[in-house]
Amino acid sequence: MNELKIRLDELNDNPNARLPICLALDTSFSMSGEKLDELNAAVKWFFREVRKDEMSAMTAEIATVSFGGIVKQLTNFSGISRQEIPVLTTDGDTPMGAAVEFCLDLLDQAKREYRELGVDYYQPWLVLMTDGAPTDVISSAVRRCQEEIKNRKLTVIPIAIGAGADINKLSQFTSSDFPPVSLNSARLKDFFAWLAKSVQQTSMSNPGDSDAHQLAASLKRETMSWDEAMRGGNP
Amino acid sequence: MKMKTSRRLHGHAVVLRCQRKMRWNAVVARAVGRSHKALQKPCEDAVGKQANSRLAVIALADGAGSAKHASKGADIAVAATINFLRRHFHRLVQGGYAIRHVEMLTYVRKAIAKAAVNHGVSIREFASTLLFAASDGIHLLIGQVGDGRVGVRSVHTGQWISAIEPSRGEYANETCFITTQGSGMRLSIVVLPSADFDACALMSDGAEASLFDRRQQSFAKAMDTLAAWVKRYPETEVEQALARELEEALTRKTFDDVSIALLVDAGVALRSNVS
To answer: Model ipTM?
Structure first.
């Protein structure tokens, strides 16, 4: 029956559910040199990987914030296909507290806009990466993070780059379910590969899937496989 | 519309009460979404119907993505719901919380639990949402636990409206399932007069992406098109066309599985009661 066809203009176009991810990246002076080169390469690779997968590209919205001397927003939440890939440069000390508060404000605003536009969204992620210790007051940022995590409003993914990172301070921003993960700069691309895969899995997820526990468990398994690869002599 | 006439039969006054009683056509269809196709997984939405001159029943379930046996769980939820509605419709219509929320949920959960025991897994591995509608032509009973949407079309305005507000969390991948603890509190059931509505549609959240505007909170024009098909064409042909359109058109708008079940007024039948 040829008459039994639905015209596409009779259907609605609801926007896809969005996954807002804020990358908060330490660009203080101590990140200069090889660490910064690795981080820039890894971020570039991450944006390209997410773009390559259709579902991920329609789901992920990534804001990039650097903190080195000052807090700088490099990209805002929007369709990743349209975004310029951020390029990081180093400067100054480590205003981590101010950066985290800035990111939390960005995520709150994104969720408000989604609600106003009738756009569904997944629980936001804050990826916090540092190679040192904060040089500003972090208590307010820590309190806000803990409140958000307790109310299931946020997942913080804390990454310590290199041996000089202050794990104790970093762990204050997150929960015991998701402790800081230590990586050397050579592993940054592997981390962003895992992050891209997690974006893909979340974009395909259905009710009942995927929460902070599963994300943390997944990253733990991944880092263990890197350690095993190292012991096996693979880089 | 009620009419009363009387005549004498063997010397006794006989009163005929004639009530407008609706007859329903029922169609169901589903299609696997792009996400499951890419993973070579089966459709995890299930749909079912059973209709005769006395009662028309439709049911739809969307298996939980995290559940190992989501597809099977959805199938069982639909079959058990239809069985229960067939046997207990009139008690449900007359009854309150105990029959509706407790007995009905218990029946459906028992069916799921039996399958879980046979597979040696937790009942959670068979989790699904559940939407259903049933009508005897006088009453239209509608229920939902979880996401997806139930729409009814008013005979007075011709407009589609949501019969029940879906149970959803803040996030896109959060909802309540029939197997969730406390789902009795999240099961919504309403009983409406059939005469006020000439169509009822159950849709999974995948189908909702194309058939409901979340910002405007209104149904798509396609709903009237589909209702017209059901009214005019044989059910088998409509179901074939619907399955094709779900696959070709609706799965373009979402990565999720899509499914829909429709009851549409087939025309008025007069029912007489002699007293």
So the answer is: 0.83
